[in-house]
Design brief:
Length: 290
C-alpha cells in the first residue's frame, strides 16, 4: 500500500485528505451525543478497521518499534485526543464556517514549530502567505463578535484545538521520517482512543446508550475523516513540510461551509465569504512558495 501511494503526487493526495476531513464538521454537527463520546466512537472504529491490516502486513514493524518511538506516538495521540475534544465541543457553540476556519489556523502554529524545533526556514513570501491566511481567518471570526459569549467560547475552543493539532502534526513529521504511515497512525490512533476513554472516565461521561445513529456517525467519521483525512496527512508529512500540509488544510473551512449551506442552511455572511477568499489566496501563495 505504501509503495503504491508513492506513485501518487503528494499534493493531489493531500487535496483528497482535505476533502475527507471537510465532512467532519458536518457529521459532528448532526450528532446529539457528548463531544467526547462521538470522538471516542470515531477513533474506536478507526483502530478497529486498521487492526486486521496491522496483523497481516505490519506485525513485524510493530514488534520492532523502539521505546522512544512508542512514547512519541503516544504523545502524538494524546494531543490528537485533546484536539478532537476541543474542536468537537466548539461546533456546539459556533458555526461550521467559523469553527473550521479557526481550527485551521493550525498553519500558524505548525510553521512556528517548524522553524523553532526543526530549524526550518520560511522566506518572506512564505511568511506573507501565512499572514494572509491568518487575516482571512480573523475576518471570518470577527463576524462572530456580536454573537454572544457562547459563540466566542466556541471560537476559543476551536483556536485551542488548532494549537493541539499543530503539535500532533509536528510530532508526525518527526516520526514519519522512519515509520510507515500505517504503523505510525495505528499506534497514534490507539493512544488517542485510550486517551479519550480516560477523558470519558474522568468526566463521568457514559460511552453507551446514545442510539445506533451515533455509532454510524462514528464509523463515517472514522472512514472519511480519519482514514481518508488524517492518515493521508500523515503520509504526506514524509514528502511535504508540516507548514505546507497545514496550509492545505485551510481549504477545509471553504469546503465545509459549502456543505453546511446545503445540509444545514447555514448561509455565511459576506464577511465570512470574503475571509474564505482571502484564505484560499493565502493557501495558493504558500503552495507556490513551497
Amino acid at each position: 500500500m505504501e509503495k503504491q501511494l508513492t506513485k501518487i503526487n503528494p499534493k493531489l493526495l493531500l487535496l483528497v485528505g482535505v476533502l475527507g476531513v471537510s465532512f467532519s464538521s458536518i457529521f459532528i454537527k448532526y450528532s446529539n451525543a457528548p463531544s467526547l463520546v462521538i470522538a471516542t466512537y470515531r477513533l474506536g472504529w478507526t483502530v478497529l478497521i486498521l487492526l486486521p491490516l496491522i496483523g497481516m502486513k505490519f506485525r513485524d514493524e510493530i514488534l520492532k518499534l523502539k521505546k522512544d518511538d512508542i512514547l512519541w506516538n503516544v504523545l502524538s495521540g494524546f494531543f490528537l485526543a485533546v484536539h478532537f475534544s476541543l474542536w468537537f465541543e466548539s461546533l456546539k457553540f459556533t458555526s461550521v464556517a467559523s469553527s473550521t476556519v479557526l481550527v485551521s489556523t493550525e498553519v500558524i502554529f505548525s510553521a512556528l514549530g517548524f522553524v523553532l524545533i526543526f530549524k526550518g526556514r520560511i522566506n518572506k513570501s512564505g511568511v506573507l502567505a501565512i499572514i494572509i491566511t491568518f487575516l482571512g481567518s480573523v475576518v471570518i471570526a470577527a463576524n462572530d463578535y456580536g454573537g454572544g459569549k457562547n459563540v466566542l467560547y466556541g471560537d476559543a475552543l476551536a483556536l485551542l484545538g488548532a494549537v493541539m493539532v499543530a503539535v500532533y502534526t509536528l510530532i508526525g513529521r518527526k516520526q514519519r521520517d522512519h515509520l510507515s504511515t500505517t504503523v505510525y497512525t495505528f499506534v497514534t490512533y490507539s493512544a488517542c482512543f485510550i486517551t479519550l476513554i480516560i477523558f470519558d472516565f474522568i468526566s463521568h461521561t457514559p460511552i453507551y446508550g446514545y442510539g445506533i445513529n451515533e455509532i454510524i456517525l462514528g464509523l463515517l467519521l472514522g472512514i472519511s475523516c480519519t482514514l481518508l483525512g488524517h492518515s493521508v496527512f500523515s503520509w504526506c508529512l514524509k514528502y511535504l513540510s508540516p507548514s505546507y500540509v497545514s496550509s492545505a488544510k485551510l481549504l477545509e473551512p471553504v469546503f465545509a461551509s459549502i456543505l453546511a449551506i446545503f445540509i444545514y442552511g447555514e448561509i455565511p455572511q459576506i464577511s465570512q465569504v470574503i475571509g474564505s477568499i482571502i484564505v484560499i489566496g493565502g493557501v495558493y501563495m504558500y503552495s507556490r512558495y513551497e
